[in-house]
Amino acid sequence: MANYQLLNNVEHKDLKIIIDRSAALGDNVWYAVTFPTEFRALQRHYPVFFIKNPDTGEFQAVAMFGVEDGENLFLDETGWNTTYIPLNIMRQPFLIGYQEQETGGGVTREPVVTIDMDSPRVNTEAGEPVFLEHGGNSEYLEQVNSILQMLLGGMKSCKGFFNTLEEFDLLESFVLDAQLYDGSEHRLAGFYTINEEALAKLDGAELELLHKKGYLEPIYMAIASMTNLPLMLEKKNQMRRAEAEHAEH
Fold it and tell me: Which of 3, 43, 62, 162 could be bridged to 225 by S-S, CB 3.0 to 4.6 A?
């Protein structure tokens, strides 16, 4: 269980954050939640799928790193082996929380920075300092703040994006049955992709509406990202081969 605390430069003045990438530090995850304006950067490396949040039933976008829980095919002994790491990974162990504040017009929920004190990245010995010696924000924390702001803005755009996709019937269920080189079969289910057939049937006015809302580009970026799926499966095959060869020796 995570242990999030409101970040402050008194209690947390000596904290350091290990920024290396490894399974031991919590990077062995098979997807991370993302948002439409990040799709362009993601589609160079990762398939972008859509899932339904089990708690709310609402759609959310995810960048996929593996084909089963706990698998990240982009991790190796040197770290995370792509040039772009999703923002929802980069922000860790920090997270945006909300604090109620009284104003003249009532009570508002204001975003605040919290930190997971139980994260293996958090310590006082090694890594990037969170605060400067005299209490100011470190350069690292300023970078984290920028990431959190991008995430906050990006996530706010999701509701309108998915409402529009559903309105135009642009989401369809996706199931992948893959056979790996050793003969084992793997099924990827419970995900959604862009319904390209429905997209092709939209008229000019509907496409113009998607464009004006800023949704057309991320739709095409999500479609383009699907070319990474066979590459990811090949990574899994390579991993299986390496494991088999290691076992033989």
Answer: 43
Sheet containing 94-103, strands listed edge to edge, beginning at the edge strand earlier in sequence:
4-6, 106-116, 94-103
Cβ-contact 48, 39 below 8 angstroms: yes
pLDDT band at 199 (very low <50, low <70, confident <90, very high): very high
CB 138 within 8 A of CB 130: yes
Distance separating alpha carbons of residues 199 and 168, to the nearest angstrom: 8
Q: Give the pLDDT confidence score for residue 249 in this predicted structure.
A: 64
Residue 219 backbone dihedrals phi, psi, to 5 degrees? -60, -50
User: What are the strands, taking DSSP E only, across the chain?
Assistant: 4-6, 16-17, 31-34, 48-52, 59-64, 75-76, 79-80, 94-103, 106-116, 122-123, 128-129, 171-179, 185-194
- Report domain extents, the chain: 4-248
Sheet containing 16-17: give its strands across.
122-123, 16-17, 128-129
pLDDT, tens digit, 9 for 90 and up, residues 179-190: 777 778 888 889
Question: To 10 degrees, the CA torsion angle through 230, 63, 57, 156?
Answer: -150
SS3 55: coil
Calpha distance 137→11 (Å, rounded): 14
pLDDT of 162 reads 98
